[in-house]
């Protein structure tokens, strides 16, 4: 393993279809403005209820990227 230094940022992804899609949406969006993404950690999972049913899922992630 190399001697990398990481910066960690938090983002929240959402999806109407599921938790995995919410994670993927967050990482996809973050990758458009951040470089050298390396890992993520799910720190919180929640959802929105509409009419007694799940409206959408939200997942808070810590995403780390290496500093240049």
Write the layout of secondary structure elements.
Blueprint: E1 6-15, H1 19-30, E2 37-50, E3 53-66
Antiparallel strand pairs: 1-3, 2-3
Mean pLDDT, all residues: 95
How much helical structure, as a percent, in the residues?
10-25%
| Strand composition percent | over 45%
**Can you count the beta strands?**
3
Separate helix tally? 1
Q: How are strands sequenced across the largest beta sheet?
A: 1-3-2
Cα(first) to Cα(last) distance is 17 Å
- The helix/strand order is EHEE
Question: Which blocks of ≥5 consecutive residues have pLDDT under 50?
Answer: none
Summarize the main sheet: 3 strands, antiparallel
Structural class computed from helices and strand pairing: alpha+beta
Using only CA atoms, what is the Rg?
Answer: 14 Å
Shape: elongated
Explain this structure to me?
With 68 residues, the protein is an alpha+beta fold. Helices cover 18% and strands 56% of the residues. It has one helix at 19-30, and strands at residues 6-15, 37-50, 53-66. A three-stranded antiparallel sheet has the order 1-3-2. The two termini are 17 Å apart.
